[in-house]
Amino acid sequence: MGNIKAVIHRIPASNWIIKSATVSQESDGKYYISILFEFADVVNPYVADKTNAIGLDYASDGLYVDNNGNVGTNHKYYRESHDKLAKAQRRLSRMQGSKKHETKSNNYIKQLRKVNKIHRHIANQRLDNLHKISTEIANQYDVVCVESLNMRSMANRGFGNGKATLDNGYGMFLSMLEYKLSDRNKYLVKVSKWFPSSQICHCCGSLHPEMKNLQIRKMTCDCGLTVSRDQNAAINILNEGLRLLTEVA
Ligand SMILES: [Zn+2]
Q1: Quick check: is 230 catalytic?
Q2: Is 41 an active-site residue?
Q3: Which residues pair with 64 in a beta bridge?
Q4: Ligand 1 centroid vs 220 CA: distance in angstroms?
Q5: Residue 195: which of 247, 145, 143 has the closest Cα?
Q6: What is the pTM of this model?
Q7: Which is the catalytic residue, given 26, 38, 49, 57?
Q8: Which of 5, 64, 155, 172 is most buried, by the most CB atoms less than 10 A from its CB?
Q9: DSSP string spanning 81-134?
Q10: How far is the CA of 208 from the centre of ligand 1 (A)?
């Protein structure tokens, strides 16, 4: 083949050894090559500061809300590009339906590639966004506390939100956080999914069973506290995560 143009995502160091390479062609017609390198692991001497911690509560309409009330945004690429995709898909199905165009015609294949290209574009943008946010958090914090979630039940939680839930890739986000924190000698602490993070008043500790109703977006407690549902949950996740961390460490 000779030399070919390529986009290289990470520059290997001079002491890395190539072990294998896998070439694949995706449905959009583009070629991808994934290269496996081997190198000696350098022991990271970093000692995590356990007071530099953050708690994240999953949010179906964003990505997460942290204990300070900040929202981690997950751009709705799928929705933004939805019109474009729908248009391309309608055109494709019209081609499939008409007798003039056999399913294997050049125009049909061209259009199919176009649809697949939009799909891939959306997937890449989403992945980039998740990488960007998880890297920022892993750089900034030494301990990240999250709720371990059952992704399948989440898709049904608060019906009507299923699409947003499946779209925002929270599970992928958590696995990125896990390895990025581990690379830096830092901690990802998973709090049990049974821990009632949204029902406990983080201020006085009293239990609010009414918060099981997802429609209630604010907690009002007899102790005088009024706090957003998500921020309160994130604070509880942070406190519980830190408690678990001191238990094992
Ligand atoms: Zn209270």
Answers
A1: yes
A2: no
A3: 58, 72
A4: 8
A5: 145
A6: 0.76
A7: 57
A8: 64
A9: THHHHHHHHHHHHHHHH-SSS-TTSHHHHHHHHHHHHHHHHHHHHHHHHHHHHH
A10: 9
Q: Which of 66, 142, 230, 240 is catalytic?
A: 230
CA of residue 211 to ligand 1 center, whole Å: 13
Residue whose C-alpha is closest to residue 141's, from 233, 227, 234, 232: 234
**Which residues are close to ligand 1, an ion, with C-beta < 5 A?**
201, 203-204, 221, 223, 225
Give the dihedral of Cα atoms 227, 229, 235, 237; nearest 10 deg.
160
Distance (angstroms) between ligand 1 centre and the Cα of 175 equals: 33
Active site residue 128: no
